[in-house]
Task: structure prediction
Amino acid sequence: MSITVDTVTPSSSPSTVPAPAKKKQVRRLTPDTSQRTRLIVQSLFVLLNAFLCVQFYFFVHYFESNATGPHVARPAGVDGWLPIAGLMNTRYFLSTGHVPAIHPAAMVLFLIFIASSLLLKRAFCSWLCPVGTLSEYLWKAGRKFFGRNLVLPRWLDVPLRGIKYLLMAFFVFIIGSMSATALQDFMVQPYGILADVKMLHFFLRIGGPALIVIVVLAALSVVIKNFWCRYACPYGAVVSLVSLLSPFKIRRDEEACIECGKCAKACPQNLPVDHLL
Ligand code: SF4
Result:
């Protein structure tokens, strides 16, 4: 993206009013294609995950139907949907130095996503996570339909944002306090080995209460930007905390800023971009 920078003199003002400071004028020479690129990447990841789900479905179906029909290999990428296994395996790896035998890809993907947050902050959420993509398009649909999204008052927004950190702390505490032997014992149990199959069954045979929760979360995501991500996702909480260590920050060019506030209005995370230093 090319940008020219020059200096403009403010228009004349009445002699009694102090002249505003000179502002740097920034003109974009080429169109900004970042959002189109992001949409393409998001769409590719949704397609990739859909492909993994279908492949995994046929893998499980082969065994559940007494080996009738074609055999399909298990896609390792499905482990990306097992963040708790990823956390347990990471803890096991840190304790023993050995890569766990059950769901090793869960650990590898978990570590890749965490490393990406260290470098690129919440790029995982805004570019890769299919749940984040769905969430984003739900609030965009809501904005189109209702003309706006609801912004919760600060006294409610701040404590609600704490929920995801509490959930994260709960998992980190439970898993962090397990010994390597206990982790190993858990992962080699049928429940640990079949965690991916259980997840598939959860969605295929979803019960009334779980369906109600998902529908309520989806409905809230239509009216409130990124409801699930902002308030409830423990994975997002981990990514958020790690991203604090990133050397990259969103910065406002104070000299160029004309304080129109459009950046804050456009920000999907409701960041006060117009007040950042
Ligand atoms: S907050 Fe959670 S669900 Fe939302 S985009 Fe990030 S990881 Fe995905």
Remarks:
- The two ends are 23 Å apart (CA to CA).
- The mean pLDDT is 88.
